[in-house]
Amino acid sequence: MKVSITSVIYLILASFFLLFFRLLLPVGDEPDWHVRVFELQNFIYPVYSPFFYLRDLIDAIEIDYNSCQLVSSPTSLWSYIPTNCSSSFNDSVYRLLITIFLVFPIIWLLIFRKLTFFLLKQFHSRITKEEVGYRLDSLLVFLLMPGSLYYLGLLSIEAFFVVISLFVFLFWNSIGITLALFIILFFVDVGNFLVVFLFYSVMLMSGVVYDNFGKKIFFVFLFFFVLTGLTLGSVILPIIYTFFDGAIAAKASLMEDALIDGYYHDKYPIILRPVISFMTIGFMTPSGVKSLFLYIVLAVIFVKLFFDVLKSNNKIFHLYFFVPISTVFFFVLFLPIYANGKYYIFLIPFFAYVAIILYGRLAVFFVASLMSFIVAFNLLLYRIG
Description:
single chain; mainly alpha
């Protein structure tokens, strides 16, 4: 089987970034750290779960990081990560191995591209080699981005959820495979599943609107979609857990309790929620460790990509760029507890797909690598103080 040298080079680079992040990031500075780690350590996973085979590595990691006191906040311009927030080299390597194990199916598909094309051809007979190349390159960009590396490195089942959600992008237009993936995602994490499922549904509806009514009505449709999130946020949750049973009703009830008890509507003003979401997609930890340099680069790229897509007449560009943005706006306006980028990190390949076609894959690979380098350099400065 022929190996993609380009993929191998950038995958090695991504592995170095991932290890470097793990060594420099404050340990335990992850969404729902104690809850998620408790689940991994105490839940007995079945043989078909990847965590069944990771038990020894997970148990070998030191979990007690209560002594870590960061000097950081979501509004701070700088952070200080003291030495007692350091992860040991062994723990960092263990967590790198866990991430590589979870991402291995994606790694395999990226390295053996011809075999991947043959595989996708079985489920989507009209797919072209060029299209498969764009999708695989988009996944490679995903693996080079700092936000992606951070969320894939979480000591949480959510990292596995991210990996599975990437297959939704890879097998786009393959309805049977997508439905099977949705079933898996639902049982892995109901809350995150709702975002992926709604995005997929809105993408399909947007395509129908675009084909039948044109670009202008497409934008009107997305506007009212976002407006729905703003107006129905406080109404729809009670309806869901009243008329549904099981996991969906339980999740809806928990979300409403979190909104009431956590004061999310006051804590995150409407105008700031999308900003927080896009910042955490780029890179920001729950304690507020972030990179202002990264946000400057991201802002410039986003503005350029926005106008280049807007002036184009390419339907795929419009769908892959504006539907993901609308989905983020919908959820953060609908449910403030969905402000964290972990819910939307799976959308990065759609943006990358558009950027690769517009600017070329090597340019996008370079920029994605540069972003991770910027974050790594920032983390190093935070260690110095």
